């Protein structure tokens, strides 16, 4: 099973700042990695897939990068609605298609 | 725009079977997507349960940690898919989400709102 480790567990920033979230895989997943955003009481929402492609309707301030084992989600100029929990997920060759444990982005 | 809606009992007794359905609105269930289930224990992270690829082949993938207890099926005529989890314990208490996986890679691009299932006597 591929383990995804996200860091930091909690990130405290102010609106207008930029956020950098990390996801590290226990073995290479090529670019088969996605990022999801989840707000309290809601289902997750797909932000980024194939490591760097924004999903439909996702603002350009969200960007993803990386390949192999190290991935980054960057959010430029944080808006109030961006404060949420972010998960990465891999879809490498074999299931289970695991999620990371999440990074909580909170208002400083 | 496709919408998904879970339905099923909110309370299941230990050792019983958890059964949920997910209705698909505004899209085809025969379009070659991965029809998936994900769960989230209260206050914790996401766990991928499994998926079925519905385009005639009916291929399924399950989380090995649940494989002996889980099954996913698709009912094309009712435009819904289902999850069954047998021999449940308190550790199976979670919010269960159904989701659609994209055709190319299975990324979860549409989700139901989730349903809390509590395992308790």
Average pLDDT confidence of chain A is 97
Shape of chain A: globular
Radius of gyration based on Cα positions of chain A:
13 Å
- Most residues in contact, chain pair and counts: A-B, 25 and 23 residues
The share of residues in extended strands of chain A comes to: over 45%
Estimate what percentage of residues of chain B fall within beta strands: over 45%
Q: Report the helical percentage of chain A.
A: under 10%
**Lateral strand order in the biggest sheet of chain A:** 2-10-9-4-5-6
- Sketch the major β-sheet of chain A: 6 strands, mixed
Separation, N- and C-terminal Cα atoms of chain A: 35 Å
Instruction: Decide which structural class fits the backbone of chain A.
Output: mainly beta
Write up what this structure looks like:
The complex is a heterodimer of chains A (108) and B (121). With 108 residues, chain A is mainly β. Chain A has strands at residues 4-7, 10-13, 19-25, 33-38, 45-49, 53-54, 62-67, 70-75, 85-90, 103-107. In chain B, strands 2, 4, 5, 6, 9, 10 and 11 form a seven-stranded mixed β-sheet that branches. Chain B starts with a strand and ends with a strand. The relative contact order of chain B is 0.32. The A-B interface holds A 1, 32, 34, 36, 38, 42-46, 49-50, 55-56, 87, 89, 91, 95-102 and B 38, 45-48, 50, 61-65, 97, 99, 102, 105-109, 111-114.
